[in-house]
Amino acid sequence: MQIVKEFFKAKAFLFAIIILLIYAIFYHNQIILSDNNLRDIFTFFLSLFLLIIAIFTILISFIDNDFLRFLKSAKTIDKKNNLYDEIITYFIINTILSLSAVILSGFILCFRLYNYTINQYVMIFLFTYTLISFIQLIRFIFTFAKQKAQFIEILDEKQV
Q: What is the pTM of this model?
């Protein structure tokens, strides 16, 4: 349930809606999807999906029980959630977004449905949301690295 709430309250969702409205107002009758650029979009989303899975796997390998407890005790900037849940939530959101974009763009590409207006809107929304959300995920990765450094400092202080 938290993932659904985070999906709609994320800044990326708001920016994606704004970009979608700008497209709808100024470029409504222009078709931006074609066979060539849809292949590029499909490749982009597939690469992004695989990158997210790889990053998640690497981060999981750095988590042991003590560090997991430390992450669960660390609060996010808004002090509402613990950092571990926030990082996991953004990984799940990004994985779902990129995978759904891969499936949708592949479906549109296979059945040559890129001339339909609704597909234009959905792809613009997915592309914008996924790109901005991925940038936020990168921010969480840096926060993770910072927390790992703090954890190591705490361990070093305890050993001395």
A: 0.86
